[in-house]
Amino acid sequence: MRDIAARICRDYLTGAWKTIPAEDLQLRRISGGLSNFLYYVSLPEDHQQRSDTPRSNYSSGRSSSKRARKDSYSSMLEPKEVMLRIYGQTHGEHALETMLTESVVFTLLSERKLGPKLHGIFPGGRIEQYIPARALKTAELGDSKISLKVAEKMAAIHSLDIPVSKEPDWLWSTMNRWLNSMESTLKTLEKDQANDNKAIAGQEIITRLDFRAEVEWLKSVIE
């Protein structure tokens, strides 16, 4: 994975990322991705310190000023650390449509500074700005100050005019997919029980409930 990460960063990032060997990069897996693989990638610490130190230029003339401008420009664009996102499910029903929609939304949020900066999109994933953060704790979700900030950000996001489908079918299609998966799993469990295998915990309760009727009721309430 280190070689793959180095190749991707070398192709899409500027400055030192073009020359740093794969073995010198700092790489670690980040937990929290639901369907994607997330990796933290950064330049070596000693290189970051050198990059942060102003460079002296002892040559004179026009070439000197050009080099200084070029070094300053490269340093400004060169991130010291990034997050590498590798898409998990790239096949199956609506997988391509989902990836395209997500890429469009992420790009627009990045441009409007409503999300992490987008450093690059490649086949199978993207390179994002790494933001040291953590998920909110349960107790923090009830904090009115935090809730207000979240509401403001969500309102700004939902007010954007984004060139994707506006049909509100994600919730129902997702529920329908889960129902199909559950019914398929229950059929498999029934076959296993016919072969004298034990039932799983809660299987009897799940079998008694009419989840499709529950979904239809929810539709009638929301729509």
TrEMBL record:
InterPro entries in alphabetical order: Kinase-like_dom_sf
Keywords: Kinase, Lipid biosynthesis, Lipid metabolism, Phospholipid biosynthesis, Phospholipid metabolism, Transferase
Location of region: Disordered: 47-74
Top-rank lineage group of the source organism: Eukaryota
Signal peptide: none
GO cellular component: cytoplasm
Gene3D superfamilies listed in its UniProt record: 3.90.1200.10, Phosphorylase Kinase, domain 1
GO biological process terms, semicolon-separated: phosphatidylethanolamine biosynthetic process
Sample GO molecular function, one term: ethanolamine kinase activity
Entry's family note: Belongs to the choline/ethanolamine kinase family.
Protein name: Choline kinase A2
Species: Culex pipiens (House mosquito)
